[in-house]
């Protein structure tokens, strides 16, 4: 193999389809998959039947027929229906894929008249399969697990096995130290309260985000009055609450301090994407508690928030 005669977009040069596909591969960092989290999702028909529906969207498919075949940019505008054969006396798993048959390397289709990019079904894959069988220039979209004697595909039979070619990621560190006077509370009923001097952070959520990973660190939280037993958590918007961390301090009656952490991973509700949501720390005393927990100007709170894109 030798160098291409001229680089892409050289005035007066001629570029082959292969050279453009190599450009697509380079721009995609060699990855393949769907472009955005909601692309090419497989769902049942509006009235379930012997087919599934593939949503619109785009993706990148790396050539498997030639190591220097580059990558193909694929796009589906509108929904497409894909037939699924019924089962007989035994269950079966099929894989729905988006496939390329490029006659430059395989097959004898004519790109001028034949669809060389199409949705296909690989029948009889393993019931745990998540990747396209070897040799296919294709990306996997869904696995259909059909019971015996079945011709109607329902949502429960569809497993989403898409992957995002180059998932986006956004991380921010948010820091706050209270300026108002000490605010503390006790209690023993496991009822959460917010600290009045810790208003929280308004976190903008990207419209592409699928999950959020949040770690809240409270440096030098204050305990007093008596031994404290309770929990630290946080809320994110109106419907998400972080996994609680136990606060178990046996320091007696004098003031003392500790650094505590709580963390969680959320699948974001559709209504959260593209909005701003409040992230705010909270705490509570649990049964048996006789102490107080507080925040003052000696406390620093750090919220590490990372958004990630994934199929949805």
Fold topology:
Blueprint: H1 17-27, E1 33-34, E2 42-49, E3 51-54, E4 57-62, E5 71-76, E6 80-83, E7 92-100, E8 117-123, E9 138-146, E10 158-160, E11 169-176, E12 183-185, E13 193-194, E14 201-204, E15 211-224, E16 228-236, E17 240-241, E18 245-249, E19 256-267, E20 276-285, E21 292-295, E22 300-308
How does this model look, in words?
With 312 residues, this protein is mainly beta. The protein has one helix and 22 strands. It has one helix spanning 17-27, and strands at 33-34, 42-49, 51-54, 57-62, 71-76, 80-83, 92-100, 117-123, 138-146, 158-160, 169-176, 183-185, 193-194, 201-204, 211-224, 228-236, 240-241, 245-249, 256-267, 276-285, 292-295, 300-308. Strands 11, 12, 15, 19, 21 and 22 form a six-stranded antiparallel sheet that branches. It starts with 16 loop residues before the first helix and ends with a strand.
